[in-house]
Design brief:
By secondary structure, the chain is α+β, with helices and mostly antiparallel strands. Among the domains are: 170 residues, no CATH class; 299 residues, no CATH class; 102 residues, no CATH class; 90 residues, no CATH class; 75 residues; 88 residues, Double Stranded RNA Binding Domain, CATH 3.30.160. It has 45 helices and 23 strands. The strands form 6 sheets. Strands 3, 7, 8, 9, 10, 14, 17 and 18 form an 8-stranded mixed β-sheet that branches. A 5-stranded mixed β-sheet has the order 20-19-21-22-23, with helices on one face. β15 and β16 form a beta hairpin. The longest helix is centred in the last third of the chain and has 39 residues. It is globular and about 150 Å long. The two termini are 76 Å apart. This is Transglutaminase-like domain protein.
Length: 1238
Amino acid sequence: MLTRYKFNFLLRILSLLMLSIIPSLYLFEILPHFILPVWAVIIIFLCYQFQKKQIKLSASIILICLSLIIFLFLLLFLFKIISAEPFDILYLRLGVIFPFLILQTVFISTSTINFYKNEKYRRYEPIVFFSIFALLFWTQGNFSMSVFEHPIYAVLFSLSFSAVEIIRLFLSFNFEKKVFTFFLFFLLFFTFIMTFVLKTYNESSSVNHGGLLQPTLFRFDFSDYLKLQSEIKMSDDLILVAHFDNDFSHNMLRRMYLSGWDSAKGFYEKKAPSEKAQIISLPKGRKDILHRAFSMREKVAQEYFFVNLSPSSFIAMDYPTQVIPYEIWDSSKFNGGYKVFSDAIFDFASDLYGEAFPSGDEDEGMSKVDLDFYTKIDDESFKLVHQTAEDITGDIPDYLDKILALQFYFTDGDFRYSLKPGKAPDGNQLKYFLTETKKGYCTYFAFSYALMLRSIGIPARVAVGFFVQPESEIMNYYPVRANMAHAWVEVFFPYIGWVSFDPTTSQLAEGENINFGMNAGGEEFNSLLSEILEKRSEIKITEITEREDDVLNIGTYIKQFFKDNISFFRFIIIILLIIIFVIYKARPHLILKFSKNNRRIVLTAGKLFKKRKRSTEEKIEMNTLIQKAKFAPECTIDDAEAAKNLLKNKTKKIIVLLAFCLISCFVFAESAETIVVEAEKAVEAENWELALSLLQDGIKKYPQNDSLFLKLGEIYHNKELYKPAYKILKNGLEINPENSSILFYISGCASSLNKYEEALMYIKNYLRLIPYDRFAASNYGWLCFKCHRPEEGIRFLLDNIKRYGEDLSVYNSLGTLYNEMFDYERSKEFYTKAIKGAEQVNRTYSGSVYYYNRSILESQFYRFDNAIEDARAALNMKERSSSYMILGELEERRNNFSQALSAYLSASADDDTPLSALNIISLYLKTGHIEKAEQYILNQLQNTSEAWISNYGLSVNEFKTNLYKIKKSLYIRKYNFEKTELKSGFLGWIKNFSNKINYKLKYTYYDAVFRLYSLKVAKEYKKNSTGDLSGNTNNLYTNTYYYNAFKGKGKKALKYLKKAESIETMFIPQSAGAYLADRAILEADLKLLNEGISKMDLEWEKHSLADLYAQGSKIAKNHSSQLYYLYLESLFDLNPAVFLEYDIKLPVKITIEIDKIENIKISAKKMKKLILSSRFIEDDNSKFSLRLTYSNKGLTFKLADKNGYTLYSKNFPIEKLDKNGFKNSVNIFVKDIFTFKL
């Protein structure tokens, strides 16, 4: 029987499983979904078995935890000692999830045994589970439901868990009066706490979304009032997809305007006395919106598809005139959509100039009472802004010129854009912005501009909504993200209406690194757009119709019904007319066929007979029959048959002809070929909606016509919408597998989707049909390279040259494939042929590519002088981002960081991939510029598509390996910096402690992800490993990535390093030094390390030498003081920023001199102690000396080398030297010392 206790226990298991799933939702890259739930079931089963043995509570918990933890340690140890590849992988994976299993073991065993044995705990356990659930979800801050594909899933998951726990809570109590009172009190208290928490949560969310957006049940919307925050953050959540003509991409997408002003509240939503209320919620049905007609407006249609915006929100340009809500297809990604028509300003026309001020005349569009309302401002704000506004505009007579003068005051003056305006000492943020800091975000600029305009009698209001990036457009669709939320000002013009002006400057405040040109599109937008284009035919128009006054009478209903169904009625009328015409024409023939009246048959046949040419005999015979029918007393059936026989032959011919014409009308009225032609015309006119509609409808009519699929796929492909293109082309290929054009395009799509094996198969089939296509042949070679099949590609391309002659692109592909095979001579031979050919025919772009590829070859074979020469030649041929990047990489190898950074920045100016950003970030990290690196990660590595990878020599997993390597490098540096930064006060210590935990956890996570992706890359190469020469190449990369995965894991890394060394040194002997040095680090062998370093190129391998000196110093510290100091001196000389990466303290001899007449509040002993708490260690044998002097109200730091040469010197003016002042000075000094100057 299922008792309350058993039912409670079953529900408890369900709750634990749900809790166990949550970590894997966050950490899906390192934690498989099934691991924790399965482990949870095992723990619960063991707890159940222990419970039956009646062991004491504490003993049960200890025994279960110990037994499971010992089992895990034994398993880990077993995997560690077994030297086989499968066990190595299991060792690494178990090591990654090990901490989670330990934590889960302790939590579930403790709570389960308590549930069995402690009734009081059992009663209140649901509250404990609620708290844990809230804690796990709390990190989904700012209502960003990233762990679920759709917010509704998060809601359902949360509600399900809550329902289970509430049921358990009821099952745990026998509700007597006393308990019921407590329970009621608890619910009230819990509700109060949750209300407070959600309020704080909402405010935090607004701050984290630009100060404009706030959450509404896991969605976002704008607040109906704006506040000036002291600091905000930006989020790149995709909010909606907008669709309108690109001629209007400069227009703002307005959510609402804020007309009311209150000095304490700010601008807020309030209706002017005589104007109609603005529509701020989406109507339930079609609605016409009336407004006064203004000049200089054009009708523009817009569509909005909501992703993370509240479905009740209403957005439109300028003056919306009609709204049509959509019932969209069944989608987990979109939560609403609609179409709206607006009267919008197409461009800022010169006709506006010279217009006079509004007078309050209603003919102008604004009444006197509304004019007073829109120029209203409180006295305190008036005093703050009026004088400045007058000084700027006093000598300017014209209305528009005044408006522009004030706008330029903000956009082109001393004001700067900042997400951290700072907190005003007196609480008046607006005054602080205008008079002190002159830095803020869009709301600050909009407030100030609107108030200045109002102070000089110009009606103004603040508007909030979004801007779009014109360059992010695909087929007139635009992505709109949370960081594109904006506030601006609308100004009224007589007879023209409200016009938008944006006063926000694009000049950044010092220390800000905001990318205004961020990539708004990316993979997510492409995926959503693909769904819209595929499913938009399923959109339904809501049948409900709303009028402006929301009253619907029968006449309006009938009128609207006919309006909505006019196309149907037109069709019915045409069909009726055709039927009447056919009946009229067919009536004589029907008489001949069905009439029983012989006279009527003869007379009807006679009428038809007279309309046709016949012989004289036939005419005489027919006239006789007609006369008989008219006047003879009897007309027999034989007479009727004779009349019909005279018509018989001609009638048959006419019927056949009519039938043929009718069939032709239906069959050939609109052929598939006609549809394709019309679609091409629409594409030329950039009427994408018409083109797609024609082709999608055509596919429904002619589902077996592959040309329609080809054209639609081609359009998608050319707009880089590879997923829908791939899908539609695949359908076309099923119809006609021999369609060469489809094969060509689908190969491109598959490649861009990183499905290289498929792409190779399709291009192979294409070349079977079109073998003379040289571009396709070179593409075949490139795909063999991407699939790690160089020998197959080489065989094919050499045969292609033999058959069809020379071709530059084929030569280039051969060079790449031979490079993959480590055949330097053959690779260089074909690259050189391609370069000479390009130079002869002046193909500068191709020549630049070929030089770039040869530069990679030379670099790979340690011929760096040749490599940098080719990199510069590539730039001379054509400036390309790739050429700048290889030049930067070569300069970085020899620690020419400034030149490398310059090259990377040049590359990023024209780079639509994240590669240049990755190089810039990596360089900033290597040189100690951590904040700049972090800003680049936040601004440059968001919303990137993966289609670009198909054109570069790496896979998706290789790119992610590089990405996570950089991220782990960032957080280990931040952690090491926090470890030795001197903090002031208790709060500073708390923040420092919190940061260290945060950075350490992030480093651990990204390190684990990096290792797991390294395993994936190794698996990719291993899949194509064979016993031939190309197998050696794949084996090399397989072992290299295994080494990266296991580096730091002892002997497991060493064996893979040795395997890679044996292969690469066979092809590239110059690599032996680096391999020896890396092996020496793993074996802690200083002699081997020095041998390896001696074989390395001291000019071109400085980047590697710095890492080796850092790691070698840690080994030498306890074994050889001479090498220890030598390595540290060499390291400091090469790149002092590496000290931070490897958490190395610089040994120095410290001297402190303090002028006795100075008033100080800190002793020399304390100073030394604080210095040694930072990034220094005292060592009298060190070659470095650090001298501190304090005199003349100045603290001076001087670092010198063994020869007395000053490496660094800095003076800090300090009036009274105390502990906090000294700490700040040391922090700045340390940061300067261990940062490479760029």
